[in-house]
Request: fold
Amino acid sequence: MLTKERKAELIQRFGNSPTNTGAVEVQVALLTERIRHLTEHLERHRKDHHSRRGLILLIGKRRRLLKYLARTDWERYQNLLKALSLRK
Reply:
């Protein structure tokens, strides 16, 4: 689960300040954390189709944000993929 402390830690790490929550890197990091949590949940609860739909929506949102970042700033995109251990 995404706790208040974990969320603040991710915002600080990827936003370079505690108030920079709108940065694409911060948004992608928070989505990635939620996606990982939901993936673990669905491994235990295979028939939870409502949560599966939510997971698919989160993945789509993250993909759109990453596509935007790749289009606007390739270096930041590459660094973010490496920091979050994402494949592309």
